[in-house]
Specification:
globular; 232 residues; mainly alpha; 0% strand; 10 helices
Length: 232
């Protein structure tokens, strides 16, 4: 497994991907820095930290949803998945190949979100002594990681069915639409059930992380079924 994951990562972490992640990291850092103004200009510590988190959350969500949906979908385009033939002819099943590739992408996303979280904390402490670290902050970023995974897997379904990178617009559009509806407070129970989303402050998933895990697992299973049935 270790060798296969290393193989996947060597293809995933190409020059374009590395440059993109570095740019996103820099933009996130700048976003955190400017959001840190709320830490220095508010008389309420609680409100200051809430504002800092909310505006930082907006930056991460905006950048991350595009980057990760694109990265997952792009990695499964037929032209970028050509090395699968080398592994599948080495007595590796398609299920094992798919699972190991998903795991590799998951480790990459989780690792990047961890770096962003550390950057968020460092910038918070750097900007003001008003910043308060709370363990709940870590779990909010875990929820965010799951959120990215969920919509990346929705995008992957369309990629597998069409082999067209432009279909990643669909999950990105869904996220933006749900965000707008949530701001207007006109989302329905069914919408929030089938398309996981955050509360208006970005602190937690509407139906909890357990619901998010179940829905993400179902999407993983559906993607696996599609992958096993399609021609490589």
């Amino acid at each position: 497994m270790k060798n296969i994951i290393s193989c996947h990562l060597s293809y995933l972490l190409n020059k374009v991907t590395i440059i993109t992640l570095i740019v996103v990291l820099i933009m996130s850092g700048l976003g955190f820095y400017y959001a840190g103004e709320y830490l220095t200009n508010s008389h309420s510590l609680s409100l200051a930290n809430d504002y800092y988190y909310y505006h930082s959350f907006f930056v991460i969500k905006l950048l991350g949803i595009f980057v990760f949906v694109f990265m997952v979908g792009n990695s499964f385009l037929l032209k970028n998945d050509h090395y699968s033939h080398l592994l599948l002819t080495a007595n590796i099943s398609r299920t094992y190949y798919f699972g190991s590739k998903i795991l590799s992408i998951g480790l990459l996303i989780a690792g990047f979100i961890w770096i962003v979280f550390v950057l968020f904390v460092i910038v918070g402490f750097f900007r003001s002594h008003n910043f308060i670290y709370d363990n709940n902050l870590f779990w909010r970023f875990v929820n965010l990681c799951l959120f990215f995974w969920y919509y990346s897997l929705i995008g992957l379904i369309f990629i597998q069915l069409t082999n067209n990178i432009y279909t990643i617009i669909i999950p990105i559009a869904i996220v933006n639409l749900i965000t707008i509806l949530s701001e207007l407070q006109i989302t329905s129970v069914l919408v929030n059930f089938f398309f996981i989303s955050f509360d208006n402050q970005g602190k937690y998933l509407v139906y909890g992380i357990e619901h998010g895990l179940v829905m993400t697992s179902l999407l993983l299973l559906l993607n696996l079924i599609i992958y096993l049935k399609k021609d490589l």
